Amino acid sequence: MVFWSHTAAMHRGFSLMELLVVLAVVGVLISLAVPGLQAQVARYRVHAAAQAFVKDMRWARSEAIKRSSSVSLCMSSDGRLCGAQGWATGWLVFTDEDGNGQLGGADELLRVQASWVGLAGMGGAEPANDRRFFVFQGQGVARAATQTMRVWAQGGMHERLVCVSMQGRAALRPAGDVACD
After folding, report:
1. Which of 18, 57, 71, 121 is 20 to 30 A (C-alpha) from 151?
2. What's 85's domain CATH number?
3. Is the pTM of this model over 0.70?
4. What is the pLDDT at residue 9?
């Protein structure tokens, strides 16, 4: 009975050539998977940003009803003051004692949404016409709040629509929709 032989020791492990072939195959498979993964990540970012906006609009409306006072949502790039260049830079939700859509005075900051990484834009077709803020009154109504908001990723391939009704109700449209009805 032989427990150890010289030939058995020579055939253990992988040769350098076998290892290089395996690494080359793995490299090719990864290079094929990465573009699909990038598209999936972009699609997820667009969906997450649109959902977060709709969620905060609904929450602001709910808070206005609960508090029986005005609650506003405004664009913000620094997380402290209203007045940014587009919703993709972030937004604030706050109590709005005077109903002017600006954080100040006795207003209480309720939520802060930071800028979205990888998002190219979030707003209407004409940025100059975008609503800079939404004010929900104590009854849960936002007057003249109509807005069709596009949310899109860098490269413009992935896009979602958020539709805000005249009363301020926000809804996320299914992927592929191009207009609010």
Report:
1. 71
2. 3.55.40.10
3. yes
4. 55
